[in-house]
What does this fold into?
Amino acid sequence: MAGGERVVGLSELHAEAVAGVVDRVVALHRRDATKLVQILREVQEACDWISPEAIDRLQVTLGIPRSRIEGVAGFYSFFYTQPRGRYRLLFSDNITDCMLGNRDLRDRLCKSLWVEPGKVSEEGLVSVGMTSCTGLCDQGPALLVNNLAIGRLDVARIDQIAELIRERVPLADWPAEFFAVEDNIRRADILLNCQMAPGDALRAARARAPDEGLLASNMRSWREGLPSGLGGPIAMLDEVKRANLRGRGGAGFTTGLKWEACRNAPLKAGQQRIVVCNADEGEPGTFKDRVLLTRQADLVFEGMTVAAYAIGATQGFLYLRGEYRYLLEALQAVLARRRREGLLGANILGIPGADFDIEIHLGAGAYICGEESALIESLEGKRGTPRNRPPFPVTNGYLDQPTVVNNVETFAAAALIALKGGDWYASIGTRHSAGSKLLSVAGDCARPGIYEYPFGVSVRQVLEDCGAVDVQAVQVSGPSGVCLGPEEFERIIGFEDIPTAGAFTVFNHSRDMFEVARNYVHFFQHESCGFCTPCRVGTSLLKNLMDKLHKGAGSPYDLAEIEKLNQLLQSMSHCGLGHTACNPVLDTMEKFRPAYEKRMMEREFTPAFDLDRALSAARQMTGRDDAGAHFASQPGAEA
Ligand code: SF4
It folds into this structure.
């Protein structure tokens, strides 16, 4: 080696390059380990996967145990600790994708590219896998390629994709129409029709102060929170309560009460209040938040800022599901514009001390992070494991600070309430369900897409509007919701009858409702976070039972087992996923029983193993009595 020159090996070069990426990403996040999920995502985006070298470097630069990094990387299904292909395809596996032949299309692509599903092709060019619902049910079958969504897959499009990959065409040069995600707004109402100029809702909220003196004192107190009884923020809070706004994420908790509890929660030294927008809409069949964030992002961010104003928060997060990665840049551009317009950042609307900003946190493919405490864990850079409650996030949320978590649609509604008032909002919908609801309509209908109705619309009306005929069933609110048969189509969408997070999936009579339930059970088993044994094991047992029935090897005994499992999951699971995992099976078993019965071997239980017969040879060899003589000697045996 001349002059002490060192020959650098390829692996060292690789390690150096990875270290450079890790150092850059970690520095961008100020070496903050609570940003671990974002750091891992950005490292993976730059390096294609999270290599052992990357983990080594993260351990050093973040100063946290390797086990924690590996634990987080292993938890999220969009993080990869093994190399993947240059083109990384994930087929959406929601029931509506299945109904449209997603697996046949996947197999065709795999065959064409000489790659096995779930593996990387030999030359490292491509990997093909499956993922849960990608939120494109109105334009499926769909897939994600390197985080970009492609819908309306058919044989021709799959063959084109195979050709583009074989020719190694960069994604930037693929046909633009491949990546056109449609909004498909079929019916708009107060939210989707809203034409509000950015800042109008905030100005209206500010104007609710009873007088300028109070207003000024309120705004100076934004950071500290306010004593109750003052105008401004308190007046805004009262409007939200008067509006009877309830959370749109499914649980339907009263928004005004949640905000008030957060506002009244004491702050410890150095703490602040936090506003989190839950855009992790992972419930299969739901895609309305995608459309709201595409068409009404200002309304959503304005609603978050109104919430911050009402509760005295200074930090906000939008938790965007990883499947919507392609929305990130557009949303960041909206945030940047709002900062330029004085609607975010320091001194909002020019008021000294009115500080609030929003950061986007991208999820990484974990359905459980839609649960608010799991979402907060994820925001803190951890595995998305639901917390014990109480304490609730309103008092002990993000980094133990008082935190409000609401759905995208809830914040959009809050902006509208700030603008038009609580009485106006409460006059829309029904007595128990104020305002409007966005439904994500998909499945067997002529016009899938987004339908916004005032609460109180009947299921039958929605079916008529979307052009559904010969309807056998509607699954409302996804797998954890309710399956309705035709005799229930007069029921209404509303908290007093059918509450929903938004999914409305239609099945005509050609569909096998057993297979629908089986798809949902597979989903729950896949998405169980594994934290508690009843759910981890119970969802696996449930899946096995449904697979056994699918193969025609089930019996009434298995149906009874499913009911027992339901009791176990209901009573022993730690969170809602476990509680609702049996819902789709129980609903379809009750309403579409023939779909189950036709799969059973026999109506009566027949043991798979005949103990008496198995032992008969041994009895003969040992000279013990044969079975007939043995039983003949028992008291009560027939002569
Ligand atoms: Fe995790 Fe399931 Fe337990 Fe919820 S019920 S904490 S998803 S294992």
Q: What stands out?
A: The pocket of iron/sulfur cluster is lined by residues 368, 386, 528-532, 535-536, 573-575, 577-578 (CB under 6 Å). The first strand starts at residue 87 and ends at 92. The two ends are 100 Å apart (CA to CA).
